Amino acid sequence: MDETIHRIISSLQTHHSLSSSPTPISSQTLSDLQTLLDNQDIQTLFDELPPNNLSPLSLLPPLTSALDSGPAHLSLSASKVYLSLLLAPNSPVFTLFTPMAFFSLLRSIRRCFKNPSFTPPDKRARKKKGGGWAGPSRNQARNAEDCQAGEEEGERREFDATVLFCVLERLELVLGLIHLDRFPDSLKSLIQTVAEIPVMAVEVSGNSGNFSKLCDLCSRILSELLRPEHGDQTVSAAEVLKSLSMSILLFKSQARAFGVGFVVKRVMGMAKDSGEIKKAIVNLPKYLVHKAPEKAEGRASAVEAIMEIVRAMEYEDQIGFVEYVVKMTQGKAQLRLLAVDLVPMLMMSCRDPLGVNLETGVENSWGLRCLEALVQRCSDATAGIRARALMNVAQLVGFLSGDDRCWEVLKGVMKSSGMGMNELLRKRCTDEKAAVRKAALVLISKLIALLGGSCDEDVLKTIGMACSDPLVSIRKAAVSALSEAFRTFSDDSVTKEWLHSIPRLIADNESSIQEECENLFLELVLERVTRAGHTNFPNSKSFSNDPTVKAKSFEREVEFIFPEGVLGLLREICNSEVMPWVKKICVSLGKKKRLKPKLASALQNIIRTSESVWLSHSRPIEKWTAPPGAWLLLSEVSAFLSKAVDWEFLYHHWKLIDKHEPDGEVRSPFQQGFADEDVVGTYESDSVNAHVKALRTLCKRKALTIEEADGLVKKWVHQLLSKASRVLDMFMSKDSEGNKDTGFLTPPTSGIKKGQRAAADTTFRLLSQAIIATYTIGSLVIVCPLADLKAIIPVLHTIITSGSSGPKLNKLPHPVDSIKQTAPSLYIQAWLTMGKICLADGKLAKRYIPLFVQELEKSDCAALRNNIVVMMADFCIRYTALVDCYISKITKCLRDPCELVRRQTFILLSRLLQRDYVKWRGVLFLRFLLSLVDESERIRQQADFLFGNILKGCYGFTLLSLHKIHSNR
């Protein structure tokens, strides 16, 4: 031992002689000092120092030099020796402890985490024998194999992790001896160093156990520094929390868990016994707000950390922070965005946000102030804030719906607080930013059940237009919102908007939307019809005895029987804009075998019940018509559910038609005024289609071979065509006679008036039959394209040319008065039927396509123009070369005065363009540009959608080709 002391004294004398430029203490001297300290013989060294003109203070220069500039392993060893000297019995603590030496100690600790040999484990190829912190089994440091020239061998060593742990453990013990209240700078530097150790250690630690132990040591040291012996606790706590904020705000880091955990578990516990520490902890969330990152992920992590701290606070302190956040909503953009994210978290974390348990009432609740502030941010000038606010309101609504009392309070607040939600939602659904539009639709989905009652029609239309948004995500959100409204409300406005917006998405270019469209139609339409059709219907006697329905009319009584607005739903399916998509969906569902026999049974029950109620009112059966849409839907699903359609049911209704047809009493809904502004597609049309399809199916099932089935079909098709031809001839002859009889008459007598009324009734019946006969001809042509139409085509030609004039047309036999004026419904139906015939006969199509284009240009009937546009689209697919030269004329309908015609034209032409049936892309594209400024918002939305796809290359366009087209034109 004397030899060890002698070596130490000799080394100190050497360093003392070089006091002008102190050098780091040697490894041997450090080892000797540590040996003395471990054997508790350090007092012997202190006793030998004065005789050799040395003092304990002589130890500081070489130790400090080693702390500042020595290699990592030497620096840490010096730190351990220095702290051990301070802890030694009878040590001259205040002689050895100086702020400068303490700062050097802290720098030494920092440097060990920045040592070049400490490369993070994920950035180096670890060898079996190296890497990471050396564990307890590796007490000797290893030399690096490749040292740079001139570099000390020890500089590339990896120190033993246990040495660092010893240093920190001794540092904690030293703080029990030395109170840093007299050294505020040392206290501040120590706090900052210890708070940063977990952050620095994450980058180099390859051992979770080592990291956990390191965090535990740091937690103990920081807890020690919060004691009043080290100074004003308010100042100390503020400095500790400020230093920890860096780790608290880290994203995806283990150090974040350390920072938050220390605040929540250690500091919060100490704050209960110290008002000074509580004051600091209350201000921490406000400080973190101003230090939160701007990027989305970092901001979300900061919000989560802040909320963990706020949840651990007392209720009064939580409310204080809530008030601060509400003020933030009126601050700078970054603070507003953070406040928008904090508000829902606060309302979902703190108790009783809406004051349902307070005597002061909801009006004074802090949650209501938060909600109002959040709704205001839904109209923020910054798009990102608007989107986040809308999404967070939706999140809050969903959360509060889980508590019945909060749900009722929220409903009352939304209805009576004047927040103007409907107006807000309308604006946000048409926002220029896609994220805002999507968020608004999500909010609508959540609010539908909350607001109750009827849904705002303007909001409904806005959602319907969003179903045609260029972005897939927004279309999906709009579909979800509108479908949620349809589930909740059964009024006609919701039904109409849903049917006009959702079924058409079966033709969407996104397969997931097509599938969702099918699923929703199955759930919200077909299953609803199925439920209604299997309701326990009362018999006819019960109707007359039931006082609640006794005074009702037939229409009201039928509506009363069927729940969920099913009759209105079926009625709207007949709309010309809805019908094609319904048929397409039914075909798709049928091919996938998703149609259930119960659906066909339900539709038959609905028709039977309607007939039963009609008879219970003692009305003549010949004037009865089934609920509109029932036959249409039954005809579509029966192709896949033929066994579910009862033969007696079909036979019964077929007999009704045969029995009352001679009297012409099977009435058409067009019989009163012939509302030709609507596209022809009536109950009789549905009935005709259903029976034609049923007959074809029966022929195929009855026949043993395909040839025999075709023969049977041709047989009854010929019979029906002959009968239809006779009906048309009868009407045409009667119409001609009527024209002759009413040529130049003097004012008639009363007797003549009676004769005229009888003649008018006869003409009316013949016209009704002629319309049905004309439609039947078109249906038969589809079933049997090779049918003989020689006797029918001249009659149809006469009808469709009755409004024309010219040298050739004047030679043809046609009525004096134009059928176009006297029977506009028949005129429209004749064009439709001729179109179907042309689709089956190419030679006839070549002759008549110019007439279709001519009528399209000159017709003053919007319904007819709309129908011809649809037919021209079919012609373009079947006879592309024939129609291609007329595309520029068809595109003129994009400026048609009727919004329906413009929209139909736009949709059909865009589909033709997508399927590459149109060659005149330049003209078509330039005409489409006009739709971007159309007065109809729905058309503008569809135009935006089209051009969004064009720019994505969906239609084979490029920006360069568009530029060339524009230049050439």
From TrEMBL:
Alphabetical UniProt keywords: Cell cycle, Cell division, DNA condensation, Membrane, Mitosis, Nucleus, Transmembrane, Transmembrane helix
Main location class: nucleus
Membrane-traversing stretches: 81-106
Pfam families xrefs: Cnd1
Molecular function per GO: histone binding
Region (Disordered): 117-153
InterPro entries referenced in this protein's UniProt entry, alphabetically: ARM-like (IPR011989), ARM-type_fold (IPR016024), CND1/NCAPD3 (IPR026971), Cnd1_C (IPR032682)
GO cellular component: condensed chromosome, centromeric region; condensin complex; nucleus
Phosphoprotein is among the record's keywords: no
Domain spans labelled Condensin complex subunit 1 C-terminal: 422-530, 864-952
Subcellular location: Nucleus
Alphabetical GO biological process terms: cell division; meiotic chromosome condensation; mitotic chromosome condensation
Superkingdom classification of source: Eukaryota
Name used for this protein in its record: Condensin complex subunit 1 C-terminal domain-containing protein
Lineage: Eukaryota, Viridiplantae, Streptophyta, Embryophyta, Tracheophyta
